[in-house]
């Protein structure tokens, strides 16, 4: 009989951090990616599987206690094509195996909001990426309410942490320039308050949600430190790295919109630019009160992030 295990689909920064946390705690882990990549650990089995193949993923998930959807289909223009079959396959695997389904979500589904986002904030997306993420959650919730699966979702803001790659958001891209002494072109208002979520805190939240039945049937926001503007975060990273005050140049929205007509990825950025033009804040006090999860100490998080991102920026 196969020993119960936890199955993680995806080995990006969150999937890797989650796999290592679980394995270090003694939980057998299987990590599924197309390439068979993932962190090396005696408690982690890495499998090369196309997770959008429902039959193959169902086979791999047999015996799983929890299935975590930490997949990343790549750049925004691929989402409409890649996400629907992938999320449906992961949901099917959780249903077929009897595992709890824990999805790594984001905040796109809320759309622009006045005030901090909370667990019960209505989903009112204003672009196709938010519509897609909202639909994924509603599909999982419908299956949960029908008794076919136990589902929950963790929702985090933009990643912060030493393992967050430049492809994980705008802040790492800006820091790649400023921590190398170059000027960064920024979108939106660099002084608008913005929540940032530590990668390790996302992994910790996912691990708790998979095991605590109080989480099932609802989304949960990942505890994050008080919001800071892009400029403030880049300044703090520069102080730690010894690179000084960040030099920023703000791109006008009309310029971004014009470039978006010919550059698909910039067109996609325009659709979520509201996140950086106004306060974009998480209120995860309910998550902390229910599960006892606290965000990583801000100074410690910046210390580790600055060292790793500076090294990466200088290496080019």
From TrEMBL:
Taxonomy, superkingdom: Bacteria
Gene3D superfamilies reported in the protein's UniProt record: NAD(P)-binding Rossmann-like Domain
Name recorded for this polypeptide: NAD-dependent epimerase/dehydratase family protein
InterPro entries the UniProt entry points to: Epimerase_deHydtase, NAD(P)-bd_dom_sf
SUPFAM superfamilies named among the record's database cross-references: NAD(P)-binding Rossmann-fold domains (SSF51735)
UniProt xrefs under Pfam families: Epimerase
Organism: Agromyces mariniharenae
Record field: transmembrane: none
Domain spans labelled NAD-dependent epimerase/dehydratase: 7-208
